[in-house]
Amino acid sequence: MVSVLVVNDQSLQRLALRMLLTAEPGLTVAGEATDGDGAIRASAELRPDVVLMDSRMSGAAGIETIRHLTHPALRTTRTPGFPAAVAVAEEAHAPRVLMLTAAGQEAEAWAALRAGAGGFLLDDADPAELTAAIRVVAAGDAVITPGLTRALIDAVREQHTVRPLPRTTGPGTLTERERDVLVAVASGWSNAEIAQWLSIAPTTVKTHVSNVLAKIGARARVQAVAFAYESGLIRPAA
After folding, report:
1. pLDDT confidence tier of residue 76, bands split at 50, 70 and 90
2. Same domain as 197, residue 150
3. pLDDT above 60 for 79
4. Is 70 exceeded by the pLDDT of residue 196?
5. Does 11 share its domain with 108?
6. Residue 94: its pLDDT value, please?
7. Which one, of 54, 219, 192, lies nearest residue 121 by Cα?
8. Are 137 and 120 in contact, with CB atoms under 8 Å apart?
9. What whole-number distance in Å separates Cα of residue 72 and Cα of residue 41?
10. What does the alpha-carbon distance between residue 29 and residue 14 come to, in Å, rounded to a whole number?
11. Total number of domains constituting the chain
């Protein structure tokens, strides 16, 4: 059962999403929140698998909310029977975040992905697309519509500079084939197109992509695009 925390400041939209998700086999609504602070508190308490956020919350405060949700600080808990001075570290819960976004908000989507969002879906998606996306994100994969992926790549190319993020892993850890795959992904190619270019099976491409994501510490395919630009493998157009 995949549990979902619905974050939306519109009561009617929260109700509609709750009705839709609870009617779907294998999905359940763990709770609701109306703002970022409420989402962080509810996530820590309810430990949902997926946080479904509306794009209207993807401003500066929303980006910080995504960062807190996906990179929660470790907390300590007192263990019964131990002296009061002894605390045991408890692993913080980090749900996957799926954003519902409107067309034309590529800049906000880019910032949210850099903060740790695991997927994006246009807010005019049909119910089947939404429920399928929730399941994919809950399984640890990324969901980003092809049109939005291309728009995000175009948005990066239009920037004159890309501010690098601090990273502990550089492109030197990738094999030559993984670098080729990463460059192709950052160029907007699909797995099928990469497979045809490299004369390998699509399943092999998928394995390479997974290995690249693991090595660079990315949780989504488009975050790998950010890495390609930030590490200099691809330069944005002036």
Report:
1. very low
2. no
3. no
4. yes
5. yes
6. 87
7. 54
8. no
9. 11
10. 10
11. 2
Q: Are 143 and 97 in contact (CB under 8 A)?
A: no
pLDDT of residue 153: 63
Helix (H) or strand (E) holding 231: none
- Residue 59's pLDDT is 62
Q: What one-letter code names the amino acid at 109?
A: A
Q: If you average pLDDT over every residue of the chain, what do you get? A: 79
238 located within any domain = no
Tens of pLDDT, residue by residue over 164-179, are: 444 445 677 899 999 9
Pairing of strands 75-78, 87-90: antiparallel
Q: Which domain holds residue 67?
A: 2-76+86-155
192 and 90, same domain (yes or no): no
Structural domain contains residue 54: yes
DSSP 37-104: HHHHHHHHHH--SEEEEEGGG-SHHHHHHHHHHHSPPPEEEEPTTS-TT-EEEEPPP--EEEEEE-TT
Distance separating alpha carbons of residues 18 and 51, to the nearest angstrom: 13
